[in-house]
Amino acid sequence: MRRRAGFAVALVAALTLSGCDTLLTNRYGFVVDVPTRAAAPLAATRCDRVFSGWGSVDDQGRVLRCRWTTSGYRWRLVAERGEPRPLVLVYGDSLVVEARASVEAALGPGWVTVFKAYGGTAPCDFAPDAARDVRMYRPNVVITSFSGNSLTACSATSTGDALAANYRAALTTIADAASAGGAVAVLSASPPPARLAFVDRATSIATATWDVALELERTGRRVRGSNDGIVLAEPSDPRTGAMALPCIPAEYEDCLDGSTTVRNVDGIHFCPAEPPAPDSPTTCSVRSPGAERFGLALAETITTALSDAPLPRPAPSA
After folding, report:
1. DSSP letter string, 279-317
2. What residues contact residue 146 under an 8 Å CB cut-off, 6+ apart?
C-alpha cells in the first residue's frame, strides 16, 4: 500500500507537470492528462497498473482510461461526453492573449472557453492538432484570429504571397476540422496595426482569412468570415489601426479629452503602458481599452455564431 501510495503521488506530480487538463478531468470525473500526439497512448495497448483509473487522450482526441482486463491493464476507450454549456475553442496570437480576459468576462459563466493562443504564433502552429482538439473538447464554436506573424518554424520562411498562402492552407485545415466536428467555424480578422510598416501584410492576411471563409461557406460548411478587428481601426482608413478612439460610456471615467488610448506605442499590441513580453502578453499595469474592445467584439461574434444569426461585423467579401 505504501509503495502504491508513493506511485500515486509521483503520478499526480507527473500529470501536473505534463499539463493535466482540468476541463476534461471535471467532465469525465477522473484525472485526464493531455500528452502530445507523439506520446499519446493507443486504445487496447498495455498501461502500467499504477495508472489504473486514470485517463489520457489518444492521438485522435479520444479519452482513454487505464483499466484491468482479462489480459492485464490496458487503455480502454470511454464514452465521449460533451459539456452542458456551450464551449468555444479560440485560436490566436498575442492580441488574442491580451483580449482573453475580456472575452471570458463578456461571455460569462454560461460559456466554457478553451484558448489555444500564444504570442508570435500563426495558424500553421495549430492546424496539425485542430482535428484532435475538436474531438477532445467538442466545441460548439471555433474562432480564429491572427495578425500575420511569421516567427515560428512552420511559417518563418514565408513572406508576401507565400505567407498568405500558408495562412490560407492552415485556416482551411482548422475550419474543416471544426466543421467535421459539428462546430461553427469563424475566421476573424485581427485588428489592423497602427504601425504603417505592417499594414500591407496585415491587409493581405485579413483578405486571405476572409477568402477561406467565403470559399468554405460556399461548399455548405458552417464557416463564416468576420471583421472583428474593425473595432480598433482608424475611422478614416480601416486598413490602419487607430492609436486612440472616442470614448464609449464604459470608458468615461478614464477618458481624456473625449478619447482613450487603444494601442501600445508599438502600434500593434493593446496595453497603453510598456509593451508586454512578446511571448507572454497576459498582464497590463493599467486598464487596456483596446484589449477590452477587441475582446467584447470577439465575444459578440461567438454568441451570434452559435445562434446562426448574421454576424455583427461580417467579412467585407462575404
Report:
1. T-----SS--HHHHHHHHHHHHHHHHHHHTPPPSSB-TT
2. 91, 92, 93, 121, 122, 123, 167, 190, 205, 209
As a whole number, mean pLDDT of residues 15-28 equals: 76
Q: How far apart are CA 144 and CA 135, in angstroms?
A: 17
pLDDT, tens digit (0-9, with 9 covering 90-100), for 256-280? 889 999 999 999 999 998 765 544 5
The answer, yes or no, to whether residue 84 has pLDDT greater than 80, is yes
- Report the distance separating Cα 55 and Cα 110, nearest Å: 27
- The burial class, CB within 10 Å (0-12 / 13-18 / 19+), for 28 is middle
Across the chain, the runs of DSSP E, i.e. the strands, are 32-33, 55-57, 63-69, 72-77, 87-92, 112-117, 141-146, 184-189, 223-226, 233-234, 237-241, 244-246, 259-261
Instruction: Evaluate if pTM is beyond 0.70.
Output: yes
